[in-house]
Amino acid sequence: MKPLTEYIARSLVEHPDEVDVREYRHGSRVTLELQVAKDDMGRVIGKNGRVANAMRTLLRVAAEREGLQVALDVVEP
Questions:
Q1: pTM, whole model, 2 decimals?
Q2: Would residue 52 be called left, alpha or beta, if left means φ above 0 and alpha means ψ between -120 and 50 degrees?
Q3: pLDDT band with cut points at 50, 70 and 90 for residue 20
Q4: 66: CATH
Q5: What is the domain range of residue 52?
Q6: 3-class DSSP state of 57
Q7: Total domains present in the chain
Q8: How sure is the predictor about 17, in pLDDT bands with cuts at 50, 70 and 90?
Q9: CB burial string 42-75: b at 16+ within 10 A, e below
Q10: How high is the mean pLDDT of the chain?
Q11: H helices within 1-77, ranges in order?
Q12: Cys staple from 20: which of 8, 35, 39, 58, with CB 3.0 to 4.6 Å?
């Protein structure tokens, strides 16, 4: 899950070196925290949260294949 999140986020932002993804596992539940540069927050969240929700959908599909549940949180720097 973490490499997929990093790939998507780095493709969207202007400062890909500042993308940081942390993964926490609790049994079959995976929580990902995505942190990007302050200037890139709008690019990752998108208008009305559409980009972030699309990322969550892709992650859910990938997690389902592995029998996991995933949650994506975008945290402020």
A1: 0.90
A2: alpha
A3: very high
A4: 3.30.300.20
A5: 2-75
A6: helix
A7: 1
A8: very high
A9: eebbeeeeebbeebbeebeeebeeeebebebebe
A10: 95
A11: 2-12, 41-45, 50-65
A12: 35
